[in-house]
Structures are given as C-alpha cells and as structure tokens.
C-alpha cells in the first residue's frame, strides 16, 4: 500500500449561483487526500494517515476517500473542526486562505503515530501539514522513522502565505528532503526553497533524493536523476478550467506509474532508466491533463485516460 500522510481538508471553491449570486461550494481536498484519491482512482492501493474530524466536513472527507478506494483505517478521528481552505481563482490559478486553528489535522501529535503494517511500502508527504506544529513535527518524525525501510516520496507543495515561522519550516523541509527518495516540486516551490541558487534542481538532489521531478505547468516536467541524467515530458494540451489539485494528480500518476512498473522502491529508483522514467512521467502528465480540465480537485479514474 501507498500511504499518503498529511492534510485532508475542505476546499471552498467559488461558484456562481443561477440567480447570479456568488457562493462557495465545499469540495474534498488537501494535498494528502488529493494524492490518495488519485492513486486509488488510478488503480493502486492507497491509504491515508491524517487527522479527521467527526463533524459534517470530516464525514464528507471520509466518504470521498472511501468512494475512491482509499483505506482510512489509520486516520486519527477527533471532535476538533475540519480545516477549511477558501480558494480564490485568478486566471484559473488557485490562491488559498486557510482556517486551521486547533483543527483535527493540525493537532496530530507523535503519540498518534501508528505502527505501520508490512503491506505499506511507500510513504508520501507534503502540503500545508508540514507547516505548523504539532502535526508538522509528527509527520517529520514519521518520515525519519521509516526512512531506509520504506520508499519516501515528498512534494513540498509550499503555501508561503500560510507560513508563520519561516526558519522552522525551512529547517523541517530540509530535514525531510534529506531522507526522501523521490521529490516532486514545482518551479515556484523550488524558487522559494532554494532562492538565488544556481542549478537549484542539482542542489536539491545533493540533499539526498535519488530523483527530483520539476513540474512546469504548461511547459511540462523535467526529471533529474542523482546520476546526472535527465528527461523531459510535455504537458497534455487541454482546456484548463482550474489548476486545483493538478500537482497532486501529477504526483499520484508518477507514483502509480512507478508502482505498476515495479520501480517504487529506494533501490529501484536509484537504478531507474531514462526510458522507464519517461513512460512514468507521460502517464502522470496524462492524468494531470484530465484533472485541470474540470473544476476543483477531481482526478481521473483509470478508464478516463
């Protein structure tokens, strides 16, 4: 199983009602949940470790996960509120305002960390869950604990406007990148993480990962391997509705492509070939292309590719 570790929240997506009034529609979202749902829909075994509320939104998130074949048995349930992310769409691109104080997701502690069954061989981290303690430190501890025993995948998915302690956040991310095997990162995230760094992707690999994949929106993706070779894939032409969850779907496509090829392990990633990686990234681009063609975080099912 591929266990996605991080936030499950409600994306409040703007919409126009038939009478012309503006409204927000609640959609299941959050980086970890988006990735888990996309993995489940694409046909690989997915699980979710997060904090889930017993409130109405928490129930919505649980149903959304289960409908996409995501195992939520390791999720920690509580009476704390669900995190809400109000989305502003500007030229199809999403900006977020988060309401997260004392939420079910944010208040996870190291005492909530589960003993993982042997069936889980890959852990995926990223998103706003890595910004604020105690949950951020809980996820970082889990990554350190399992590094070397399971494949560690990371997508920082940085929301800089939500960061209140930049020094602590940067230190946490750097520590997790050092134990990661695979990193997926956007151009904006790489610029924020390693500002004014010449050849930032090489610098990222020097931290420890065997593979780094840089997503560049309509310009496709560039992947660089520790052995100094790289491959590129183009994005899929499509009519873009919005980009909510696009990066999460691309990451899920990468993971499922690698899993189906038997390449989702530390040793396999270190020895992956350019041709094999190109096929994996092409599959990820196809999945992301479907996601951006419709509103909200709504990744494709396998039959839609």
Describe this structure in words.
Pfam families: PfkB. Its EC number is 2.7.1.-. Belongs to the carbohydrate kinase PfkB family. With 305 residues, the protein is of the alpha/beta class. It has one domain (2-304): Ribokinase (UDP-N-acetylmuramoyl-L-alanine:D-glutamate ligase), CATH 3.40.1190.20. It is 33% helix and 25% strand. The protein is built from nine helices and 15 strands. The strands form three sheets. It has a nine-stranded mixed beta sheet, with helices on both faces. It has a four-stranded mixed beta sheet with strand order 3-2-8-9. A two-stranded parallel ribbon has the order 5-7. Strand 2 (9-16) and strand 3 (22-29) form a beta hairpin. Helix 1 (31-41) crosses helix 7, helix 3 (135-146) packs parallel to helix 4 and helix 7 (246-260) runs antiparallel to helix 9 (274-291).
SSE diagram, text form:
Elements: E1 2-5, E2 9-16, E3 22-29, H1 31-41, E4 46-49, E5 51-53, H2 56-67, E6 70-71, E7 76-78, E8 84-90, E9 93-99, E10 122-126, H3 135-146, E11 151-155, H4 166-179, E12 182-186, H5 187-193, H6 200-206, E13 211-215, E14 221-225, E15 230-233, H7 246-260, H8 266-270, H9 274-291
Parallel strand pairs: 1-4, 1-10, 2-8, 4-6, 5-7, 10-11, 11-12, 12-13
Antiparallel strand pairs: 2-3, 8-9, 13-14, 14-15
Helix pairs in contact: 1-7, 3-4, 7-9
GO molecular function, one term: kinase activity
EC number: 2.7.1.-
Organism: Seohaeicola nanhaiensis
């Amino acid at each position: 199983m591929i266990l996605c570790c991080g936030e499950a929240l409600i994306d409040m997506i703007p919409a126009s009602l038939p009478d012309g009034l503006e409204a927000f529609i609640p959609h299941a979202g959050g980086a970890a949940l988006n990735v888990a749902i996309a993995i489940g829909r694409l046909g690989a075994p997915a699980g979710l470790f997060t904090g889930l509320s017993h409130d109405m939104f928490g129930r919505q998130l649980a149903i959304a996960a289960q409908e996409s074949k995501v195992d939520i048995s390791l999720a920690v349930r509580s009476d704390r509120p669900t995190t809400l992310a109000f989305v502003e769409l500007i030229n199809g691109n999403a900006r977020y305002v988060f309401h997260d104080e004392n939420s079910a997701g944010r208040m996870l502690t190291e005492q909530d960390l589960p003993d993982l069954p042997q069936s889980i061989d890959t852990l995926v981290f990223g998103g706003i869950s890595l910004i604020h303690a105690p949950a951020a430190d809980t996820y970082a501890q889990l990554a350190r604990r399992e590094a070397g025993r399971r494949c560690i995948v990371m997508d920082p998915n940085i929301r800089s406007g939500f960061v209140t302690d930049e020094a602590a956040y940067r230190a946490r991310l750097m520590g997790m990148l050092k134990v990661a095997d695979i990193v997926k990162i956007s151009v904006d995230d790489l610029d924020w993480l390693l500002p004014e760094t010449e050849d930032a992707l090489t610098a990222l690999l020097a931290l420890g990962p065997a593979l780094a994949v840089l997503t560049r929106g309509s310009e496709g993706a560039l992947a660089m391997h520790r052995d100094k070779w790289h491959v590129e894939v183009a994005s899929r032409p499509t009519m873009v509705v919005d980009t909510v969850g696009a990066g999460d779907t691309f990451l899920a496509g990468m993971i499922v492509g690698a899993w189906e090829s038997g390449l989702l392990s530390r040793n396999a990633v270190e020895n992956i070939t350019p041709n094999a990686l190109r096929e994996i990234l092409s599959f990820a681009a196809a999945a992301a292309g479907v996601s951006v063609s419709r509103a909200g975080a709504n990744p494709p099912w396998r039959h839609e590719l």
